[in-house]
Amino acid sequence: MFKLEDERENNPTNRETLIRPFIRFLNEEVCWKFSQNFVIEKDETIGEGKTIGKLDRYMMNADIAGFLGKYVFDSEPSEVAGSSEMMDEIFEASENKLAATVFIPQYWNAWSSI
Amino acid sequence: MSPAKKTDSNSTPKKGVQLKFKSNKDVPKTSLSPKKLGNNSSVIIIGSAFGLVFARTTHPTKPGEDAYTYDAKRMLIENPEKAATLNCINVRLFPIIKFMLLIFFSHAFYSPHSIFRSSTGGKKALPTPLKFKQAVTTPRSMCLN
User: Among all residues of chain B, which has the CA nearest to that of A39?
Assistant: First the structure.
């Protein structure tokens, strides 16, 4: 998982620019038992702009809460979980929105120790 | 003065002369041997909300399987500074059984039909506008799951 700097828009060009050093790392700095070559194949991002794929499409509940608590919000987890506007930004599935009031506070600090 | 004897380039070689071709066996295999073309491990990029970008790999010859990246993940976990320079904030390094257990328990507890799920409270009022954290320039260490 990688994070774009806040001022950078999450568009295909910036995503590729972000991943290029990682590809270089895989190809040039890792000693593989059997040689392999990594290449960027495609960008599978769903939609663009505000319709970009939400977090629950790709992450487990505990990781969503941990990521939000460590990198995104300074607010209290209960405030975030109680905001229907933010829930719409984070989740696609209605089941996850319903469960968020429980697991967001529970796993808010899950990433704080890593 | 007799004219120089012309040699015909198209003439067939004399019988008895056998041409030798290099065989593949003569080329020593080393780690410096050129990589086979078309045998690349693919990296697929997926963007998500809040500036999050996922990179996943696929095996060059086995469709549906991840590429072998364990060594790279270990390096990133053991060297957080290197991970930070790559803007890498987390690495997934699941033994498959642990992953399956995690999926099972996650669904068991968070599915709306789960027998373990407790009832949620009432509807809450909207909070005051949320304050976003400052840009994270040096992500900290990775987790070893």
Answer: B42
